[in-house]
What does this fold into?
Amino acid sequence: MQQQTWTCDCGTVNATVRPARKSRLVCYCKYCRGTMLHFDKENDLDGKGGAELVMTLPEWVTVTQGFEQVKVLRLSKRGAVRWYASCCNSPMLNIHPSRNFPYGSVVVRGLDDPDALGPIAMRAFPDQAYSNVRASRIAFYWVTMRAFARAALARFRAAHKQTQYFTSEGQFTKTPERLDDARRTQILGLDAKDR
Ligand SMILES: [Zn+2]
Ligand SMILES: [Zn+2]
It folds into this structure.
């Protein structure tokens, strides 16, 4: 799919992004929502508490300006790590914590041409939404299956080893921040113990 530019709210951080085709999604999981709440982006959630993302690969997102402002937040032990522009608290990119599973999703609100992403291809974790969400299981499996295939191909190319997010040893290039218990409970809800 056509490359796009992702820009943080204040314009300091710029990245080029290649979105995966037919992979625009709304995620209702408490972590995606919690990330938006943590960064005071509540108004960008949909009415049911969903965050709009588009799938990509870590190798398809390159920060071209302001990487020194990019930081990483970790809300759970096994879940995605969340890269954001610290200059203005703009959430940017979620990636799988293991370099060997190249999966990423970009926060749509910073992209220059959201319309080019096409319609919403799936709604993930509808059970965690604020209220009832109609979500197709078939769409979920289909989009997820293609993400697995994309990850496998990326590993085959070995390009997953050349991103800005992992060192050559496979460690994060920036130390993930953790939130204290009070803040976690505030943004994730009362059942925020699973870390
Ligand atoms: Zn900024
Ligand atoms: Zn999510």
DSSP finds three helices and ten strands in the chain.
